[in-house]
Amino acid sequence: MQSKRDRSNSTSGLDKKLKREAEESAVSSDSDDGANPDDDFEDEYDEEDLALLKAAEELRMEGGMEDAGDDDDEPEEATGKEDMEDEEEEDQKKVRFEVYKGEEMKEGEVLDYDSSAYDMFHQLQVEWPCLSFDIWPDSLGLNRTKYPHTVYFVGGTQADHFTTNKLLIAKATQLHRTKHDDDSDYESDDDDMDDEAEMDHRTLNHPGSVNRLKVMPQAPHYVSTWSEDGAVRIWDLNHFIDSLDNKSFEKTKPNDHLVKVIKSHSEEGFALSWSPHTPGNILSGDCKKFIYLTEMQEGGNFIESATPFAGHTKSVEDLNWSPTEATVFASCSADKTIKIWDTRQKKQPARSYYAADKDVNVISWNKTVPYLIASGDDAGIFKVWDLRSLKSGQTCESIGHYKWHKDQITSIEWDPNDDSVVAVAGADDQITIWDLSVERDTETETIKHGEGEYPPQLLFVHQGQKDIKELHWHKQVPNMLLSTAEDSFNLFKPNITEDK
Hints:
This protein is mostly beta strands. It has helices at 10-28, 46-57, 80-101, 238-246, and strands at residues 118-124, 130-136, 149-157, 166-175, 198-205, 210-215, 222-227, 232-236, 258-262, 269-274, 282-286, 291-296, 302-304, 316-321, 328-333, 337-342, 351-354, 360-365, 372-377, 381-386, 400-403, 409-414, 421-426, 430-435, 447-449, 452-454, 458-462, 468-473, 481-485, 489-494. The longest helix is centred in the N-terminal third of the chain and has 22 residues, at 80-101.
């Protein structure tokens, strides 16, 4: 299996692939895409793309799955020691490959955790499962690699009764490296492995189950929740965040922290997204088919819009703002479409295309390659779309089509620290990590290992959680993922990169 250490430049690999596919698409597609000639997505990135592609052509990918363990080109006069080292390295690759993939779980089997598969793995139990959560950006620094780690997050419960639901405000500490837990000969530094992981938390009563929860990026103490009662609420949780750090806590009432109740919707929903460009602007989409924009005015007041974005014919499942355009966002729906909108035009989307044969559940807009969107659907398929080549109103061809999961896709997110890596969660109790810069081999589309076959882009399979609902990459701790499921939270770093 090819890991990140085998790639000299992940972006160049992805760009080369996109260039080839774009050229093929240009030859076969009609020049008239039916879109507005002033469409922001038409030629916005052309010059930048050409420069990137030109640079990418000068770089070659190092290694690759088809080259792993191939010693045919080694000099015949290599020493016995070198041969032994090569054989040992190949054996390690085989072991790592088996650890990454494992065997398919059969009914009634229990997954045995192997610490060597993870650089870090911790499981946190909670009283009630959380359908949704988000990670708080903290002041502990960027690109953190030194153990133990500390993370902050907030989740919303799905309890046994409407009145017993809560917001869970949590701080997890002593997240030490666990890769060598099963190695009795390993000697760690004092700061490498410490006490067991700990979680300090606060709770706040919430009316109804929390369908979706999002943290405002510019002011993380503002948290929005979609409730089963059909309302979107905005909370100020600064009191709870501070108490996790200073250990003092004064009991308060929920209304003390409730900033706004958005009542635009006549039905509950799941789609929610804060703008990364305009502080306080938040989109919410409901199960009836409508999307509303709420804006924060000077002074901190939130103003609801009376006019929805109308274009979908069924439930709006997910929303994502453009990473580069302040007025542009994307939506996906149970009507099988993905639509691109401009907030200045509510009557109809700027682009609309059929993206699946079943409901499109989730989307993720690539933050550093802004013409790429990934989507996941009810058939267990996730796809990657190039916005520059999409034709409105048609069934369009994706530039990536991946069928691995055996049940619906429940969450998908691009790695914020690696623009070619995407994590996908499914209702089949799996989280998969994919490196889309890995070139496909037209003769060998899958890699055989034991009784299984795996796509060459598949880096890692995480199992052990039941009914996984949502995942997020930690932007400040590279390669760390957090996931929520029916039985627990998992915080882990797959062992697929070089040791830090």
